[in-house]
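dumping this here so i dont lose it
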């Protein structure tokens, strides 16, 4: 017996109630960003790992908990990211002399090299992602994204 249902001309579309939701659009952006990051920047070094390396370069010797807050990671995720970077030889974690529970973070030479290479590709990706905007629009868009992220983080912390 054959199926009497005619074949669909196109696949289903997301309903307006979904496409009008900011969270849905943010998730779409993030999924696309992850795919483009892996292709354009580094298929092994993740965005959070890159953020940690950049922040450790800017603030060497700071503790893991402070770094987690700086890069918007919870402390358990930060511990996992730092451990992975340490296992790859990109990051050194040293126990603080005054408090054996605190881990201080430093880039290794290999970490500095990996960051330099990835940073160049990440800046190129930034240009690709925002190339449809003129310079003033790019700046305004990034300011608005930051304000939105700040607000949503406040809401998450209040929960």
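and the seq i came up w/
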């Amino acid at each position: 017996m054959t199926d009497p249902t005619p074949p669909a001309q196109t696949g289903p579309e997301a309903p307006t109630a979904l496409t009008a939701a900011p969270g849905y659009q943010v998730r779409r952006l993030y999924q696309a960003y992850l795919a483009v990051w892996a292709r354009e920047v580094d298929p092994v070094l993740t965005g959070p790992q890159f953020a940690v390396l950049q922040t450790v370069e800017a603030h060497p010797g700071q503790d893991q908990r402070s770094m987690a807050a700086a890069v918007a990671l919870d402390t358990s995720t930060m511990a996992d990211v730092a451990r992975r970077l340490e296992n790859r030889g990109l990051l050194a974690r040293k126990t603080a002399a005054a408090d054996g529970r605190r881990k201080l973070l430093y880039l290794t030479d290999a970490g500095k090299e990996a960051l330099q290479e990835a940073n160049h590709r990440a800046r190129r990706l930034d240009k690709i992602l925002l190339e449809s905007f003129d310079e003033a629009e790019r700046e305004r868009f990034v300011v608005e994204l930051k304000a939105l992220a700040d607000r949503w983080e406040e809401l998450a912390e209040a929960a």
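The chain has a mean pLDDT of 93.
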